[in-house]
Amino acid sequence: MFERYTQSARRVIFLAREEASQHGSPFIESEHLLLGILRENEALAVRIGGETGSVNSFRKEVEGKTTIKQSLIGSREVPLSADSKRILILAAKEADDLGHRQIALAHFLLGILRVDKCIAARILQSHGSSLLAIREETIRDMRWAGGFDIDDER
Q: How confident is the model at residue 151 (pLDDT cuts 50, 70, 90)?
């Protein structure tokens, strides 16, 4: 399933699983994907959040919008929620529509924004991110969001 993902995109899934476990969630939710993206590329937190943008400020927003439970101990598989599955499917569609062979962080952001009722999309929207703006920036230059990994091609 993840063969088209860049190394950075694969790390996002790992980091999102870690976030879900730390929040005591039985599923990887959209907000965990967003935190995974921002942990993988902290410059995006500043770019999206402005002067106050940091992974910790986004984490506080997530915690304000969700119920945090006791951390899950041990290494257990945490499945994707329905929204997260949809985000990953839409990220792949965005990559296809843009003619990109690989799925990268920008495609994840586009997928999140297309599931506009999820917590992560509402957080991005509250910071002024829109599907059109992110897509235009992605078309202009994939490197803005970590782009493709070094030596990877479109």
A: very low
